[in-house]
C-alpha cells in the first residue's frame, strides 16, 4: 500500500511543563489527565495528535529544592522528572513528546529565540526593584499581595529585590493584544476567564525582566554569561522545542515547522497570565505564530485552599492509583470537578462515585447481561445489533446521547461528556429492568427470542459506552471490549465512528463473564454494617 502523506494540520495539545521542585501531586495529574482525555478524543476523530508534556527544571526554586534535599540540581531534576514519567505511565497518559527544559535541544532553541527577540529590538537592560515570590517565580504588584506582602497563592512573604536585568518590552504589544482579543475572544477559555485577561491588559502591560543575575541554575543569556534567562522566558519555549527532532543542530524554525502553532495550551488558572499575555507577546516579537487557544482550568482544593507543592497540602496520586486504579482516578476527577471550575476532593465521594458509575451502571450492566447470555445463548449473539434493534426507539435514544457526548468533548466540556456517556448506561439499565429478559427466557418461544435480542441490544449499548468513555477510562474500555470478544488490535483501531449503532455481529462469541471494574469496598461502610 502507498502511504499518502497527510497535509492535515495536527492537533497539538500541551500540559504545563511541571516544576521539579517536588514530585507530582494530584493537581499536576489533574491537568495531565484532562489533556490526555482531549488527546484521546481527537485521535478517535482521526486527527493526528501531538500531545506534549514535560518538566520545567531551571530557576531559583528548583536550585533551592535540590539543595534542601542535599542533592545537585542535575541529580534532583533527573529523579523528579522521572517520577513524572512513571506516574504518567501508571495513569495511562498517552503523551507523544516529553520535553525537559534541561534537554540540550531545548537550551539551543531558547538561546536562538532570545537572539531573535533581541534582534527585533524588544530587549533592553535596566535596574529593577520589586517584591518577588520565589514559589511563583514572579515579581508581584504590591496591590495583589496580602498583609506582610504575602503572596495570595503561597501565603509566604515576598522578598524585596533589586537587580540589574534584561527586560522584555511587553508594553509595545498593548495594541496588538487588544486587537487579538477583539478579533478572537475564544483565544482564552473558558469564556469567563477572558475578563481577567482583558482587565490585565486594560490596566496597562508593563515590561518584565527576563534574566537573573542572582541565579546560576539556568540557561546563560547569550553574550552575557553573568546572567541566566528567567525561568518563564525559558520554559514556555518547551512547547516548541518539544516538536524538534533530536538532531545534532536543533533549530527553532525546524521545530516550528513540525507542528507549531499549538492548538490548545491546557493549564491551570494560576498561570494564565504567562500563557495568555507574556507568551503571545514573546511569539509576536520573534515573528512566530500564536497558539490557537489557552484554556485555564480550575483548582483542586483542600479545605478551600489550592492544593499545591508549595503549600504542602497535596493529595498523593500514586497512592490513589495503587489503591483504586487509573480508571477510577481519571474518571472521578473528570466527572466530579466541573471542568473549568474548582473542586474539592473527598475519599467518601470518590468511592461513592466510582462504585455507582463504573462498577454498577457500567460494569454490572455488562456483567449481568453476559451472565444471561451465557446461560441462555451459549455466550453467542443470536443476531447482529442492527437487526436486534429494528423498530426500537431505544437505539435512537442511545445515538442522541452519543452525539451529545461528542459535542461536549468537542467543546472541552469534559464533565458533561462523561455525564452524557453515563446517561447511556442509565437508559441501558432502565431498558434491561423494563424488559426483564431473565423472565422472558423462562417463558420460552417468541418471548425467549425477544429476550435474546434484548441482550444484543444491551451489549451493543455497552460497546458504545466503552468507546465513548475511552478518552476518560482507556483501560476499563479495553476490558469491556475484551469481554465482548474483541482483540486488543481491534480495540486499538476503534474510532469515534464506531459509536454508530451496528458494531456487534450475529454469531459473535463473548468472553467468560468477569467483572470489568471491581467495586471499591468502603471501609467505613463495611464497619457500619
Ligand atoms: O507552574 N489544581 O509548574 P507547576 C489543579 N513550571 N491543577 C493544579 C493544581 C491544583 N491544585 N496545582 C497545580 C508551573 N496544578 C510552571 C509551568 S509551563 C511552560 C511552566 C496544575 O508544577 C495546573 O495545571 O507549578 C497548574 O497550572 C500547574 O499544575 C502548575 O504546575
From TrEMBL:
<dbReference type="GO" id="GO:0005739">
    <property type="term" value="C:mitochondrion"/>
</dbReference>
<keyword id="KW-0067">ATP-binding</keyword>
<dbReference type="GO" id="GO:0009570">
    <property type="term" value="C:chloroplast stroma"/>
</dbReference>
<dbReference type="InterPro" id="IPR014758">
    <property type="entry name" value="Met-tRNA_synth"/>
</dbReference>
<dbReference type="Pfam" id="PF19303">
    <property type="entry name" value="Anticodon_3"/>
</dbReference>
<dbReference type="Pfam" id="PF09334">
    <property type="entry name" value="tRNA-synt_1g"/>
</dbReference>
<dbReference type="InterPro" id="IPR014729">
    <property type="entry name" value="Rossmann-like_a/b/a_fold"/>
</dbReference>
<keyword id="KW-0436">Ligase</keyword>
<dbReference type="InterPro" id="IPR023457">
    <property type="entry name" value="Met-tRNA_synth_2"/>
</dbReference>
<feature type="domain" description="Methionyl/Leucyl tRNA synthetase">
    <location>
        <begin position="141"/>
        <end position="370"/>
    </location>
</feature>
<dbReference type="InterPro" id="IPR033911">
    <property type="entry name" value="MetRS_core"/>
</dbReference>
<keyword id="KW-0547">Nucleotide-binding</keyword>
<comment type="similarity">
    <text>Belongs to the class-I aminoacyl-tRNA synthetase family.</text>
</comment>
<protein>
    <recommendedName>
        <fullName>methionine--tRNA ligase</fullName>
        <ecNumber>6.1.1.10</ecNumber>
    </recommendedName>
</protein>
<dbReference type="GO" id="GO:0005524">
    <property type="term" value="F:ATP binding"/>
</dbReference>
<dbReference type="GO" id="GO:0004825">
    <property type="term" value="F:methionine-tRNA ligase activity"/>
</dbReference>
<dbReference type="GO" id="GO:0006431">
    <property type="term" value="P:methionyl-tRNA aminoacylation"/>
</dbReference>
<dbReference type="InterPro" id="IPR015413">
    <property type="entry name" value="Methionyl/Leucyl_tRNA_Synth"/>
</dbReference>
<keyword id="KW-0648">Protein biosynthesis</keyword>
<feature type="domain" description="Methionyl-tRNA synthetase anticodon-binding">
    <location>
        <begin position="389"/>
        <end position="524"/>
    </location>
</feature>
<keyword id="KW-0030">Aminoacyl-tRNA synthetase</keyword>
<dbReference type="InterPro" id="IPR041872">
    <property type="entry name" value="Anticodon_Met"/>
</dbReference>
<dbReference type="InterPro" id="IPR009080">
    <property type="entry name" value="tRNAsynth_Ia_anticodon-bd"/>
</dbReference>
